[in-house]
Each structure stands twice: as C-alpha cells, then as structure tokens.
Amino acid sequence: MSGTTSDDDEEAIGLTFLFGHDRWVPSGTNTDTPAFKIRFETLVAGGSIDGDALMKQIPSGLANKFEIEARTQRGFKFEWNDTAGVPWHVHGHEPDAGAKAGHIGAARWICRISYNNKFWLVPVMIVSNFPDGHANFQPPTMWTPSKNKARDTHVPLDA
4, 89, 108, 120 — which has fewest CB within 10 A? Predict the structure, then answer.
C-alpha cells in the first residue's frame, strides 16, 4: 500500500496529541554553526531551558523523529544540517522510567543538544590546561566530543 494512507493510519496520526508529539513544533530559521551555538547557550535561565524558547531556535519544517519507547513515551528529536553543512541534533523526553535514581533524567524533562558529535555541557565549562599563548591552549568551551558525560549533557527542560 505504498503511497496510500488507511483510515487507521489517519486515526493514529490524529491521536499524536495523547503522547505530546503535537507540542514540539520548531519555528526557527537555519543559520551557521557559531550563531546556533550562541542561540542554544543563551537559552538557559535559572538552570533550565524553556521548551517554547527551544522550539524557536530549531529550524521550522523539521519532522519530529522521536520514537516512543517503554521508558519514555513523550518527547522530541530533531536533526538538521546548518547553513555550513554541520549536523545538529536536539532531543528531549519526559522523565525516564528506567534512569538511575538521583539522575536528572529520572526526575524531570530533559534535552540534549549536540553539533558535529559535540555535546553541550551545562553548567560545565571546559578550561584548557595550558596558558593563553601556549601551542596547546584551547579557548574555554561548553561543548565536548565525549558522549560519556551524559550526566552533564542532560539539560533540564521546562516542558
């Protein structure tokens, strides 16, 4: 039945509100990597991100690719390339029923933001071990290529 939609499919799509999928609709514009970094870094207020403000930073027209799982039924997942061709990934979900006790993901809505496999660390700032001017100096950053810092990359989300 490729290319056709059954009544059952239309009914299922019409019930997406039950899982909050209609809540997450991006309305932003696409831009370059530095501008996206600034957009996301300035979203944190009082230790969390407002869900509506987050959706205003993600380019409009993207499909929500969130998949319902046993541990989380409500959430969002958006992927796109910025104007420089750099891949971005923003996803979030309700409290995770399978997360470890004491983990932020078990307690509330969270989101994770990454570009080119570098994850945003909140509220951690990575500072170079070398002084400014040294050949190995790296400017301070809130982005890390490590996926092993999940605890630091889960940003509290006011959904």
Answer: 4
